[in-house]
Amino acid sequence: MSPLSTVRLVAPGSPREGDRLAFHWTTDAPDPKNWIGVYDGDRAPGTGSSLAWSYVTTAAGDITLDTSGLGEGTYTAYLLAKDGYGILARTAPITITARPPVVAPHAVVDSFTTGAYAAGAAVSVPLAPLWVRPPGNPAGTPSFRRLSGDAWLAVGADGTVTGTAPARPGPHPGRIVVAVKDSAGAGDTVTVQVPVRAAGSRPRLTIASLNLWDAGTHVDGLPEKLARLVLGQGLDVLALQETGGTVAKPLADTLGWHAYDTPAGVGVVSRFPLTDAAAPVADLPAVAATLQLPGGRRLRLWTAQLDEAAYGPYALRDGRTPAEVEAAERASLRHRQATALLAAMKGDLAARSTPLVLAAGLASPSHLDRSSKVRWPVTVALAASGLHDAFREAHPSPSREPGTTWSPVRPAEPQDRIDQIQYAGPLRVEAAYALCTGWPKPVPDTAANGWPSDHAAPAVTFTAR
């Protein structure tokens, strides 16, 4: 190495696959056969061929090498003497990262089923908000046309599916296949199924509760992934925690739904209109709203997130006795918040003719789940108030159906059911499950996960009695 010779990368500052690399060099030993060569990893000059090179004949200058064929990895550029392998100078390691694939504009989902429409009701389903143009794609405008389907369904050029639901529902949902063409050159198809509800039938809805893990900042493309989750899983209502006060409304706009979000970080996205929204409870992140269900029925929905500090299963893991853990839980902020939540819900719990659902992050296991003899005070208090654990009602055996929600991406954590949906009033549980789509990678490699959280989502399908 020559102390008076240098070589450094000038541009780009953060190279990606396909970039050409520009270097600046200086030397006190110029020669017509001096050269700069690029080598991968720890491979030194003289060990195999350089991956890109050029002669540099003067004492100083700038040169750009065609490195467009280099893949993701770490490289070093060397200033070498007289057509040989004597090293005059070297760069710091150069990291070339993968270039994100160019994603064409596309529909969020290829097919989905709408909510059920009453016989004779007007159908209106907007598809345009479901058209995604990823960053870096040229601006364009989608247009829509019908390809096939039931005669009573049509689509406008703006992407709104319209029609009048038949007076007599058939054995299958209505169906329309829509072609989408973007002026930027992309195309796709979307199949929309439209169920028709028989007159007098009782409303059926699926509610899920989802902790968005710091407002979704740990995954890429959150808006599209949330919309795909809701439509792909046939959800009707999503109770949200850790929204940052910014997630519910944009998601509802994409779906053509209704939303209530708050600076407290808890909110609701609903296929059904929302009324009587309650301001966040003073002592904890919790809000409520009334869902206006078909046929004039109503459902009162609460969502909340209790404090996560001093998590009880950690104490059990560390050797505390069940009695000690239970005493600590009773003295915790989490238990005080549960008490405040039940006080806020008191009037709704007393209105027995209107069903009530609590979809919440409890930060506590259930006394119905563990065999450790801990009667977890949070869920004991909920049960004492008259709330029913929907999942454990549908799956009485914790050993066969644990229903774990914490955590699909943190395998070293105690695996517990700390997110729950509980209910009171005239509802019947048709199905209950812990929802987590795909095979999410564990932390810290979560950015590309399709699943947008570090919690699984409890989901319950109810029928109004």
Number of strands: 31
Largest sheet: 6 strands, mixed
Stretches where pLDDT is under 50 for at least 5 consecutive residues are: none
Roughly how many Å apart are the termini? 83 Å
The total count of helices amounts to 8
Principal-axes shape call: flat
Q: Calculate Rg over CA atoms.
A: 30 Å
Strand order of the largest sheet: 22-23-21-20-31-30
Overall pLDDT level:
93
- Please state roughly what percent of the residues sit in beta strands, choosing from under 5%, 5-15%, 15-25%, 25-35%, 35-45% or over 45%: 35-45%
| Fraction of residues in helix | 10-25%
Which structural category do the helix and sheet elements fall into? alpha+beta
Describe the structure.
This protein is of the alpha+beta class and 465 residues long. The protein has helices at 213-216, 222-232, 248-255, 312-317, 322-330, 333-350, 377-384, 390-394, and strands at 6-11, 21-26, 35-40, 52-55, 60-65, 73-81, 86-90, 94-96, 106-107, 111-113, 117-118, 122-126, 131-132, 142-149, 153-155, 160-164, 174-182, 187-194, 196-197, 204-211, 237-241, 258-261, 266-270, 274-278, 286-292, 298-305, 356-361, 388-389, 419-424, 427-435, 457-464. The protein has a 6-stranded mixed sheet with strand order 22-23-21-20-31-30. It has a 6-stranded mixed sheet with strand order 24-25-26-27-29-28. Strand 22 (258-261) and strand 23 form a beta hairpin. The radius of gyration is 30 Å and the shape is flat. The model has no long low-confidence stretch (mean pLDDT 93).
